[in-house]
Amino acid sequence: MYRTNTIRIPITMRSKEPIEELQNEKETPIADEARSAEEHFLAGEPSPGEEPCSDEKEMENLRQQAAEYRDKYLRAMAEMDNYKKRVERRYADETEAERKRLLRAFLAVADNLERALAHTEADGAFAEGVELTYQDLQRLLRQEGVEPLTAVGQPFDPELHEAVAVVPGDDAQAVVVDETQKGYLYRGELLRPAKVVVSQAQDNRR
């Protein structure tokens, strides 16, 4: 019988360290690119050398449109607020003008009552009734902010008085000596000027 001889060939094992270093050197640029792409992706930015995708461009357009619509909305709200203020101011002015017109109508009633009192005997039920009505009307006017204007004895003021006659006098300055129609103030402003007779020295008459 034949004997089989086993021949052993020694194999020298190479160290793994050079192989691993070589692999790491080859994989490092790829890993860096991968990490860079991941960072840009998480930040919502395109990777270097990569063109923005159509979705990102569309999103940017939508942001611009949203900013434009917001600006238009704010402008429209400001215009609406200004319009509302103008309408409120005009309504307040018209209401105030109508109130003054109505108060002047009451002043005409007060004038008639004053004339009635001037030509009515002091004693009597009729005179008493007219006096009570006149006092009630004056009370109502005061509640609405209307006050009679004191004119007699005051220097003539063309902004408050309307001269219906001028009589000679000793004062160098024009002075109100009589009143033919009472003047009134409404909340500190002139509601109706007083019609007055003015006394003035001869040398100062125009």
How would you portray this structure in words?
The chain is α+β, with helices and mostly antiparallel strands. The protein has 2 domains: 60-144, Hemagglutinin Ectodomain, Chain B (Alpha-Beta Complex); 147-206, Nucleotide Exchange Factor Grpe, Chain A, domain 2. It has helices spanning 17-42, 54-118, 125-143; strands at 146-149, 161-168, 175-181, 183-186, 189-192, 194-200. The protein has a 3-stranded antiparallel β-sheet. Strands 2-6-3 form a 3-stranded mixed β-sheet, with no helix packed on it. It is elongated.
Identify the notable features of this structure and list them briefly.
6 strands, three-stranded mixed β-sheet, 3 helices, 206 residues, Nucleotide Exchange Factor Grpe, Chain A, domain 2, alpha+beta, Hemagglutinin Ectodomain, Chain B, three-stranded antiparallel β-sheet
The number of domains is 2
- Stated plainly, the CATH topology of the largest domain is called Hemagglutinin Ectodomain, Chain B
Overall SS class: alpha+beta
Report the CATH architecture of the largest domain: Alpha-Beta Complex
Query: What's the SSE pattern?
Result: HHHEEEEEE
What coarse outline follows from CA principal-axis ratios?
elongated
Question: How does the major sheet shape up?
Answer: 3 strands, antiparallel
Give the total of beta strands: 6
Radius of gyration equals 51 Å
How much helicity do the residues have? Answer: 40-55%
Beta-strand percent range: 15-25%
Low-confidence stretches: 11-20, 22-27
Q: Enumerate how many helices there are, as a single number.
A: 3
* Integer average pLDDT: 80
Task: Measure the end-to-end span.
Answer: 170 Å
Instruction: Report strand order across the widest sheet.
Output: 1-4-5
Q: What's the CATH first level of the largest domain?
A: Alpha Beta
